[in-house]
Design a protein that fits this description.
By secondary structure, the chain is an all-alpha fold. Helix content is 57%, strand content 0%. The protein is built from five helices and no strands. The radius of gyration is 26 Å and the shape is elongated.
Length: 110
């Protein structure tokens, strides 16, 4: 039988994983136990609480020096012929100015 002790042991084994994964495992276990109870295979479903909410990591916001470095590197790569037929610096500046994602820039028609 699965009780509070087994749930706590499972939580302990999930501690090294991120909260999103732990919540997926605990949610699946909760659904399986509820199904077993509805089917008459289990008398009581132990309470299973979710882990703390999974947080997205904070994104670093590039400063002006980072952007200058990126544009200069793109200009150098274009000058070196790394991407023939494209102006990489122009594409990066377009993305920065218009807030376009790489896929949106690639989909533009000139």
């Amino acid at each position: 039988e699965i009780g509070r002790h087994e749930i706590l042991r499972l939580r302990g084994s999930l501690a090294s994983n991120d909260a999103h994964y732990a919540n997926q495992v605990l949610g699946l276990l909760r659904r399986v136990l509820e199904f077993a109870a509805e089917s008459g295979l289990l008398e009581d479903v132990p309470a299973i609480k979710s882990e703390r909410r999974a947080r997205k990591p904070a994104r670093a916001v590039p400063d002006e020096d980072d952007l200058d470095f990126l544009v200069t590197a793109a200009e150098n790569m274009t000058a070196a012929g790394r991407y023939p037929g494209s102006d990489l610096a122009l594409l990066i500046l377009l993305g920065l100015d218009a807030g376009l994602r790489p896929g949106e820039i690639a989909g533009l028609r000139w």
